[in-house]
Amino acid sequence: MTFNRNILITGGAGFIGTNLIFYLLNSCSRDRLVVLDALTYAGNLENIKSLIDSGRISFVHTDLSDIKYLESIIRDYNITHVMHLAAESHVDRSVTSPIDFINSNITGTFNLLEAFRANWERSDLNTNWRFLHVSTDEVFGSLNSSESPFIETSPYQPNSPYAATKASSDHIVRAWHETYNLPVLITNCSNNYGPFQFPEKLIPLTINNILLGKVIPLYGNGKNIRDWLYVEDHCSALELILNSGVVGSRYCIGGNNEMQNYQIIKEICEIMDDKFETLHTKPSINLVKFVKDRPGHDFRYAINSEKLINELGWIPKVNIRQGLEKTVSWYTSNYDWINNITSIDFTKYISNQYGGIL
Ligand code: NAD
Ligand code: TYD
Fold first, then answer.
1. Which amino acids bring their CB within 6 angstroms of ligand 1?
2. Residue whose CA lies nearest to ligand 2 atom number 25
3. pLDDT (tens digit, 9 = 90+) per residue, 158-205?
4. Which domain holds residue 156?
5. pTM
6. In this structure, how many other beta carbons lie within 10 angstroms of the beta carbon of residue 93?
């Protein structure tokens, strides 16, 4: 088979990466997908094993710290496009172990850029090549309740170690375009949810704890706001931006769906209570326990996606109620998935001292 493009997807065994791979394969493209992942606690090879075994994707197990190996992979597969998702991604872990975030998110991004640049500079056929850097709205800091949602020109003001490392990597990627003319694209997306998300993040943690009859830890007063986006809609945006985005520019991606943490937990509890007649914890909302707040906890994130909608025609498809129902269905019918990742090494599963899964 002749491939149109050779796309390297980093972080492909993680939450968004796994969804992205299935999404791209379903969209019937004629691209070769090469997936790279270090398989940290958040990366699960089982997610994509059937695709590797059937030859639908190639998999490379390596850490972004190994620049020489990165160079050889990118050269050997003649990578023409990169979708860079690999990162340490959990804010609470960044509070307790920031060095992992510096290494993977900053140095790792630098190594990948340099490895890609070497191949790009070597080729005469590189006009349509792209490096898509997948980032977060958290780089813009926190909004108060009356401020307008973030847009592409919002100033950077990262507050957590996670956000600061993502902000640094955004700047490095942008600088590689300004300095070396590397054809980069940057995306800043709001909070994702959906299948395959590690159960240290709010939504899968809530579902899992309801199933286990465990406390649902709610940080602070539970009024912090996040703008939730179903992961498949994020994937459609990434594919569109890779194909049609203007080189050197940035796109904000959001769910247009702001909810307080208490509200979203309440909605999940209602869905779970309706779905399972025999839940002994009913009403599940009684499992909520207000716990000590996360240090530097950003109050509100919200994204204005008008640029992406108006310029590239992005259409998000899944509203929050549908998305939560799909997510609850997936977790409750794939309970082995959670069991496997949480039983392999329990110490890796424990994320933080501020509530988390403990
Ligand atoms: P995740 O933690 O579920 O997955 C990250 C993946 O990267 C894992 O498979 C892990 O093994 C791999 N990885 C980590 N460090 C690595 C390294 N040094 N070398 C190679 N592989 C490494 O994260 P996610 O939620 O899927 O997020 C993916 C990307 O999207 C991240 O860059 C994140 O900043 C960004 N993002 C996430 C969200 C969200 O809500 N989850 C929102 C906006 C942007
Ligand atoms: P999280 O899923 O960790 O994403 P992020 O910090 O990147 O936004 O958290 C989402 C929100 O939920 C955030 O305001 C923190 C809060 N939260 C809790 O209240 N309890 C929890 O156990 C977790 C993990 C998060």
1. 11, 13-17, 37-40, 42-43, 63-64, 85-89, 104, 108, 134-136, 166, 189, 191-192, 198
2. 202
3. 999 999 999 999 999 999 999 999 999 999 999 999 999 999 999 999
4. 6-196+228-258+296-318
5. 0.97
6. 21
